[in-house]
Amino acid sequence: MDIRTEIDRKYGAVELHVCSGAMTDEVRTVERELHEMYDRRIPGTDARGNRCLLTPGGIISVYAEGQKVMALCEEGTYTVPAKLYEFEQAFGEHLFVRISKSELVNIRKIRKLDMSISGTIRIRMKNGYETYVSRRNVAKIRERLLTERPVKNG
Amino acid sequence: MREYLKRGLISFTISMLAGLIVNLLIDSIVSSVSGTGIITMSPEFLALFPTPVIAGYVNVLLYGVIGFTFSVMTFVYDLERIGFLMQSMIYFTVTAAVCLAITMLLWQLQKYPAPFIGTLAGYAATHAIMFVIAYKRLKREIGEINELSMADT
Fold first, then answer.
1. Residues near B93 by Cβ (< 8 Å), separated by ≥ 6?
2. Overall number of domains in chain A
3. Does residue A49 belong to any structural domain of this protein?
């Protein structure tokens, strides 16, 4: 892969262009990694009222709790000033997948899914967080994982 | 909920149209073969209304109610804390109850035990087969997800 830097006054802000002859797994991986590094940060407020900026890649789950939208991260839970569908529109294409009417999870943080005898589908995240997936969204999770597969070096 | 009601209204309309078209086809074919007019409604149902036209309208509306019920009840599959088996049982119970009630009203199915039981058994069997197919597909998809997730770690 060639990495080139172009300094030209025509660029008002830093732009990253990914160029390729075709859309390949490698291109998708590069796009995904760049989005994770440079996507806009999200303002969040913790339980004590302290404000901070959250990195989308560090968020494990985003869920609706009453009228609020909460973001679960490794370091704690934060209230975010966005509706769930707004969050999904902004980040759903690259990092998050909807698992139920009221929750999105970070696709990179999924450890495994379990189905109990009664048929409840539980998702376990890499940090130990567990929640439920609705049946309709299982296929979506699978499709997203298939398209997000990293390129294997070899 | 708004989304389900919207889908329900669409299904209501489609079911009404489908029922109306089927009725028209049956009426047309039987009438042309027998040479006499026919309306595909039971005498007992017709007797409930002042005119056959009103009975016809209500007949079509009831087809719509069946479609509406099938569509709106799909909300149960989005209740992720209820297991798949329970979701299917709730869906089957409500849709079967509505379907059978309307069928009994329209064609007096309760007077004919064998067809009544046959209809119920047929619907239950169809539902059971669909459940088994969906369950197996779900298990397979979950297995694939777990393989992909493990490959990613």
1. none
2. 1
3. yes
Residue with tokens 């980040």: A91
Q: Which two tokens stand for residue B67?
A: 């479609």
Could you tell me which chain A residue has the CA closest to the CA of B3?
Answer: A101
The tokens of A96 are what?
Answer: 């998050």
Domain count, chain B: 1
Q: What is the CATH number of the domain that holds A93?
A: 2.40.50.1020
Containing structural domain, residue B107: 2-152
Closest-CA residue to B12 (of B59, B69, B76) = B69
pLDDT mean across residues, chain B: 88
pLDDT-derived band of residue A151, with 50, 70 and 90 as boundaries?
A: very low
Tell me the pLDDT of chain A averaged across its residues.
Answer: 86
Domain of residue A130, residue span: 41-148
Report the percentage of chain A scoring pLDDT > 70. Answer: 93
B152:A149 CB<8 A = yes
Interface test with A, best of B133, B135, B141 (most A CBs within 10 A): B141
Average pLDDT over residues A59-64: 94
pLDDT tier, B37 (very low <50, low <70, confident <90, very high otherwise):
low
Judge whether A76 lies within some domain. yes
Handedness of CA B4, B7, B13, B16 (dihedral sign): negative
Inside any domain, residue A18: no
CB contact under 8 A, B153 and A146: no
Q: How far, rounded to the nearest angstrom, does the alpha carbon of residue A66 sit from its chain's CA centroid? A: 22
Tally Cβ neighbours within 10 Å of residue A73.
18
Residue A27 lies in a domain: no
